[in-house]
Amino acid sequence: MSETLLLYSYWRSSSAYRVRIALNLKGIPHRIEPVHLLRNEQRREEYRRLNPSGLVPCLVDGDFALGQSLAIFNYLEAHTPEPSLVPVDPRAAARMWALCAIIACDTQPLQNLSVFQHLETNCGLDQNARDDWARHWIARGLGAFEASLGEGPYCVGAPSFADCVLIPQLYNARRYGLDPSQWPRLAAAAEAFEDLPEVAAAHPDRQPDTPSDS
Predict the structure, then answer these.
(1) Is 1 within 8 Å of 72 (Cβ atoms)?
(2) Quick one: which of 81, 65, 72, 62 has its CA closest to 18?
(3) What is the C-alpha separation between 127 and 164, in angstroms, rounded?
(4) Which of 31, 34, 141, 163 could form a disulfide with 193 if both were Cys (CB 3.0 to 4.6 A apart)?
(5) 14 to each of 24, 66, 150, 159, how far by Cα in Å?
(6) Domains along the chain?
(7) Cα torsion 37, 110, 212, 19: sign
(8) What is the pTM of this model?
(9) Model confidence over 8-32: pLDDT tens digits?
(10) Residue 214: is its pLDDT beyond 80?
(11) How many CB atoms lie within 10 A of CB 14?
(12) Preceding amide of 168 cis, omega within 30
């Protein structure tokens, strides 16, 4: 692994946010390269050569580029196994990856900018309807996450990739007016994790591309 990794990120991207948390927790030196999604910088040819899906995040390690946050998690764990963010017990590890998938596969993609643009342009949904769409899928996903949690204080008893995935989704939930306290076990797990300085440093409000009026 290179001495310093490069992470293509957007300040408010949930997927990039979760990878920033993981990098910080593992103490891996990295540099943020902002990709402004609203200006369609993710569609530029030079970026699509690195990440053909045209999404963020994209992690670059020397001549190796990798998109998809869960794949990046596996790469970071393989190259920097300590501190581990995967439980040792196989069942606990499997539960952790299932929790990650509830958000990263079933919930967060339905709130992507490209989805909202399609709902507006091709389906005629106005802002209120798009916000209702987001609230529906966020509540559905967080409800499933809550029902799948083990005993605290974190998602699987110790800091893990599941916590890295949960925190950005709660940030989005609050953006759309949802109160996390309706999921008490989930809120308790998040509160313990959010207090960690490595997690706080990854917050969207603390990024190099955070707008001054955010």
Answers:
(1) no
(2) 72
(3) 29
(4) 163
(5) 15, 17, 23, 18
(6) 5-83 (3.40.30.10), 90-198 (1.20.1050.10)
(7) negative
(8) 0.95
(9) 999 999 999 999 999 999 999 999 9
(10) no
(11) 24
(12) no
Distance CA 82, CA 62 (A): 21
Which range (48-52, 107-111, 201-205) has the least confidence? 107-111
**Other C-beta atoms lying within 10 Å of the C-beta of residue 127:** 9
Which range, 97-101, 106-110, 111-115, is most confident?
A: 97-101
Alpha-carbon distance 33 to 211, whole Å? 15
Residue pLDDT, tens place only, 165-196: 999 999 999 999 999 999 999 999 899 899 89
CA-closest candidate to residue 113, choices 14, 209, 44? 14
pLDDT band at 213 (very low <50, low <70, confident <90, very high): confident
**Max Cα–Cα distance, the chain, nearest Å:** 49
The CA distance from 61 to 65, in Å, is 6
Query: Residue holding tokens 């580029």?
Result: 65
